[in-house]
Design brief:
single chain; 242 residues; mainly alpha; two-stranded antiparallel ribbon
Length: 242
């Protein structure tokens, strides 16, 4: 069944949110704060591992780094485009709308929880690659694995940040569902190198999500999302400058 992977991922996030909402009530405010910091630190190290995998390589007996220009250009250009478009404001406006429509107007952390969790589950190569596999071959295995990870992440985030995290099921349904429907058009573009570049930039954006969890909102991560598009475009720039 085409699209089954998206449905599994969406349901996993909803269930994780419900469990997290229940367990979150068992913790005091300072304990929830500590869980948020722990979640942020975990996200930071997961992101660091992904970024280092993309930037570091073994050359003989030496460990060498590369793709610095790729990172700088994708992040900077992506941020410029994102700031001009106002992606972060769009996310927050949608979060505010959800907050009012779902009867959570008294939850001060709803929008932050929604945006943070949405970025965490949507950014990354697994969402795109898994959706393409699902759309072309009906293979939902990658999204099934991602669903387990998202279930854990959203459960923890909901218990610490609040029920807004559970509503990240909406953007993941729309995003993965769209990629699944457009899979045949996207698949020729997503070469092995494109996926590698996408994973690298995605890891850096996830690192920024971790920064916000640990130190408060200091980075407008949503406005950096166009950097993922630049990462794919970079593959097709002649000259091998990256």
């Amino acid at each position: 069944m085409i699209g089954l992977g998206t449905l599994i991922n969406t349901v996993a996030i909803i269930v994780g949110g419900l469990i997290g909402n229940f367990t979150g009530k068992l913790f005091k405010e300072d304990q929830q704060h500590a869980i948020t910091k722990a979640c942020g630190i975990s996200v930071l190290f997961i992101a660091i591992a992904g970024a280092m995998q993309g930037m570091m390589a073994i050359d003989g007996k030496n460990l060498v780094s590369g793709k610095s220009m790729l990172v700088v250009l994708c992040i900077v250009l992506g941020t410029i485009v994102g700031e001009l478009i106002g992606i972060e404001n769009g996310f927050e406006s949608f979060g505010e709308w959800l907050k009012q429509k779902t009867g959570n107007s008294g939850d001060k952390e709803f929008v932050n929880a929604f945006v943070t969790a949405s970025l965490t589950v949507c950014i990354g190569a697994m969402a795109i690659v898994g959706a393409i596999q699902d759309g072309i071959m009906g293979d939902y295995s990658t999204l099934a694995v991602k669903s387990v990870l998202d279930f854990i992440v959203v459960a923890v985030m909901t218990s610490s940040l609040g029920k807004g995290s559970a509503f990240s099921a909406i953007p993941i349904f729309l995003f993965e569902g769209s990629v699944t429907l457009l899979a045949k058009l996207i698949s020729p573009i997503m070469t092995e190198m494109a996926i590698a570049y996408l994973s690298l930039i995605g890891s850096i954006l996830i690192f920024c999500v971790g920064v916000n969890l640990v130190w408060g909102k200091t980075v407008r991560v949503a406005n950096m999302l166009p950097g993922l598009i630049f990462a794919v475009v970079a593959v097709y720039i002649p000259g091998g400058i990256f």
